[in-house]
Design brief:
Strand content: 25-35%
Number of helices: 0
Largest sheet: 5 strands, antiparallel
Distance between the termini: 49 Å
Length: 100
């Protein structure tokens, strides 16, 4: 398991997806993309194929409500982000106050 501290950069081992940890989980989790664990080795190339057809979206924040984990997608690619097998969901953006 990788230490998921805020600012930690991770890369998928099966696609070009890259993320940054925004909020640490309350308990240790196994973070994966496309069904394979993510790595802190940013120089490693993608090997294999993701197990899902969904893509990660550049600039979106993904959360795991069970642990409080929050990550930011910095490079999009195929594969679903998950923590301990639970699919991460896209966090809804905060509404800005109206300025009249």
């Amino acid at each position: 398991m990788t230490d998921l501290t805020p600012g930690k950069r991770l890369r998928s081992t099966v696609s070009g997806t890259e993320i940054i940890v925004v909020r640490s989980p309350a308990a240790p989790v196994e973070l994966s993309c496309g069904g394979q664990p993510m790595t802190a080795n940013l120089a490693a190339g993608a090997a294999g194929q993701p197990t899902a057809e969904n893509d990660t979206v550049l600039g979106k924040r993904y959360v795991d409500t069970d642990t409080g984990l929050e990550v930011l997608c910095t490079k999009a690619g195929p594969g679903v982000l998950s923590a301990d097998g639970r699919q991460l969901t896209i966090k809804a953006p905060n509404a800005l106050p109206a300025s009249d």
